[in-house]
TrEMBL record:
It comes from Rhodoplanes elegans. GO terms for molecular function: NAD binding; oxidoreductase activity, acting on the CH-OH group of donors, NAD or NADP as acceptor. This is UDP-glucose/GDP-mannose dehydrogenase C-terminal domain-containing protein. It comes from the Bacteria. SMART domains: UDPG_MGDP_dh_C.
Amino acid sequence: MIDYHDPFIAVVPNTREHAALAGRRSVSLTTEAIAGYDAVLIATDHDTVDYPALVAAARLVVDTRNVCGRARIESDKVVKT
């Protein structure tokens, strides 16, 4: 299962390049939801996301923005790319 969370894009609009994604809805970042995923990918740094709670709930975090490093979140679950 692949989902996304974005506080600024609640629903993916229809586009020529990604028509298959149209209509997908942003999911809430609850502890239960995060724990249900094999991995969480941080692709954008949003101020509204509670990154310490996200890391605590996740099995694996792939951090492409160095959010965890800047927030001084240290965990074996975080992979910086």
